[in-house]
Design goal:
single chain; 120 residues; Globin-like; binds protoporphyrin IX containing FE
Amino acid sequence: MTDTSLYERLGGETRIRELATTIFDKHTQNATIRNRYTNTDRDDVIRLVTEFICNGTGGPQAYSGRDMLTTHRGMNISEEEFVAVVDDIVEALDEHGVGQREKEELLMISWSLKPEIVRV
Ligand code: HEM
């Protein structure tokens, strides 16, 4: 079996940055969560989420941001907000024509992070 990383199958850093940009912009339009992003630096968050996905899917990039627990601790994020974020991710993956297998892998990674994000 050939073992191509998820990073490569997603199309590498350029495609991943495009995905991260779409996801961020959907968050700022999503009534459930948009208030969370009013005081964030768009370029900064897109850069860090790009690094996070690249690093977490097998890319050579280092991740220079904070870990998920430290980042989201004290925000009191609800289940509903978490689902809203995952919904935006699904929409972005569909709009970017990401394959079924890659979608499933990214969604599994997203869900697995829930204990480090919701009500921490
Ligand atoms: C799978 C789910 C999620 C992932 C992978 C994720 C990932 C990240 C990353 C990598 C950062 C940047 C880290 C840093 O600032 O050092 C970040 C920041 C942030 N996240 Fe999340 N996040 C997720 C879910 C959520 C949810 C559900 C919310 C609430 C609606 C949220 C709200 C925020 C906010 C407001 C920031 C900016 C923090 C700041 O500007 O200081 N995130 N997230």
